[in-house]
Amino acid sequence: MSLVSNEFLLLVLAAVLVYYLAPKRIQWLVLLVFSYAYYLAGSVRYVVLLLFSTTVSYGMALLIEYLRAREVPASTLKKMAALGVVLNLGMLGAVKYTGWWKIFPLGISFYTFQSTGYLLDVYWKRAKAERSFLKYALFVSFFPQLLQGPIGRFQRLAPQLFAPHAFDLHNLSYGVQRMIWGFAKKMIIADWAGVFADAIWADLDRYNGLALFGLLFYGIQLYADFSGAMDVVIGIGNLFGITMDENFRRPYLATSMANFWKRWHITLGEWMMDYVFYPVSLSGWMSKFSKWAKKKFGRKQGRVVPIALADLIVFFLVGIWHGASWKYVMYGLLNGGIIAFSELMADPYRKMRKALHIKGDEGWYHAFAVVRTFILVNLRWFFDRSDTVSQGCYMIRQAVTHFAPSQLFDIAAGSGGTAFVPWALLIIAVGCIVMVTVGVLQEKGYAIRDGLARLPIPVSAGIYLLLLVLIGMFGSTAAPRGFLYAQF
After folding, report:
1. Would you list the domain boundaries of the chain?
2. pTM value?
3. 69-94 pLDDT, tens digit each
């Protein structure tokens, strides 16, 4: 059930009505029922895996607290935590990478990471184990975020899910505006950009002069699609008075690759930092490696080498999280390699800027850093979008050797065919200008959403209605497209 389907919107409407009509003490139970109804609509088989992940992390967390209260050795607790993580991630690996589960369960990577993070938080005493299985099941399965995140933390999300909420027009307005903005990004910008990106990648020989355009369109599609989905999901949460973690923060305005990953898919980046990067960095074997590096490269550079190695490990895992393919390994290693290289070159860069009398806070330098990062980010999309590593390399080669913009006008732009290409390109351009303008204003501190939410209800309702009309007028007329990250 796609987030843009009528069935899903009816489910949300029914959930909101029942939620606020139900006694406050059972509102959380209403959310649980609708969450499992949503997942059951996909397949009963999906629920088996969801329940497995839920049961393993719930049971192991309780067992760890039980054993800790009886002062068992720390090594025993560590083994229990490791067993829970292996069972949870082992299930994900078996389903995702062996091919024995023919229909890929929706959102499995997201809820597996969420439940694994909870288990480790209990083991590290960051969170108390939840006693109620049904309440914990809601935390894992909350239906807006089940399909593609954000990856929630128990300490922040669970108290909101379990708490009673009174109906609030401000929350309703805030949620509706966020949802409509997300739908506009998805159905206007992402889906039109996807028409061109898909056509170019589907016939590389025919459109051999459009490799750069294919890259640009895919970059636009991916951002507007994924961030649009997060807007819809977070907006739905607002309808229930629940604030979920932000997953995007204007990533194409990042000034470095490290900064980009603090803005793009934020909850995945934070998950990898907390549950992979820091444990690896503080591990015994990394401590030994750090001592060796300091002897080999000197004290200053020796401190950086282990961090660079940890970055490579993290982004290798990010790559294979996206899929069992060498192209994803390449994608991950490119990310990690660039960040690791930047870590190693941090001191030479500082000396270079000092020699050139560049402080780093100049407007022109900031613009340069944004453009440089944007180029690096988009170069990686060659491997993310291509079917194979060799195809990604082929596209890079085509981008350097062939450039024929006129081939764009041979692509059928939705139901309007090739004649509609100029209009489709104009829609994408205007949509991107609006999206970038909003992003820049937010970057400068303007609280646009708060301002809209404070408007009188008739005025805000009129604005929302206008946006819906614009979606109907300018949305893609090609075949409906699902959200890209729903496949993970």
Report:
1. 6-162, 171-244+400-487, 257-391
2. 0.90
3. 999 999 999 999 999 999 999 988 88
